[in-house]
Hints:
The protein is an alpha/beta fold. It has a single domain (4-148), classed as CBS-domain, CATH 3.10.580.10. Helix content is 38%, strand content 18%. It has seven helices and seven strands. The chain has helices at residues 4-10, 33-43, 63-70, 80-83, 86-89, 103-109, 131-148, and strands at 19-20, 26-28, 47-51, 57-62, 96-97, 115-119, 125-130. Strands 1-7-6-5 form a four-stranded mixed beta sheet. β3 and β4 (57-62) form a beta hairpin. It is elongated and about 65 Å long. The chain starts with a helix and ends in a 9-residue tail after the last helix. The relative contact order is 0.20. Bound molecules: adenosine monophosphate. Adenosine monophosphate is lined by residues 19, 23-25, 45-48, 114-115, 128, 130-132. Adenosine monophosphate binds next to β3, β7 and α7.
Amino acid sequence: MIDQHLQAMLLAHREKFLIPASMVATVNVTNSLDHAFLILTKNQYAKIVVVDNDNHFWGLISLAMIANRLIETEKINVNNLHKYHVADVMQTDAPTITDPFDVEENLHLLIDQSFLTVVDHDNYFRGIVTRRELLKAVNYTVHRFDHFYDVHEKEEN
Ligand code: AMP
């Protein structure tokens, strides 16, 4: 459990936590790999969210996943960019969250992911929580804690 005072400070700027879906670059599950390649390269993101026409979450796709599909025994076949679709290479086991403000869960999950996908109970894509925003909250907390609280060391038993 996170101490309630630390939790309050981590959530001081909670409005920054959720980057809403309308601000997040995505690709459609039916898009060809060349379209996904373009979106990833233009936005300079390592990995992005895959949705369907109704904005339901399907998975994540990265340049590495696309590159892997281009590799054949002794060459790189760029024709595979139009031959295959996002659904053929995307990652479907990435964790999702429903509560962008559950700092405890998000801190654990963001150790291994650079961002977390936020969905509602119908798997509708709501946005992302990034490691960067949570680290900003941690940075604020560790630098400002003594501004709000007096800390006393416990006596040794
Ligand atoms: P950051 O912590 O801001 O560097 O973001 C970490 C990762 O989250 C990026 O590499 C992207 O994969 C993803 N990301 C952040 N912001 C966006 C966005 N606006 N649209 C799509 N993906 C994003």
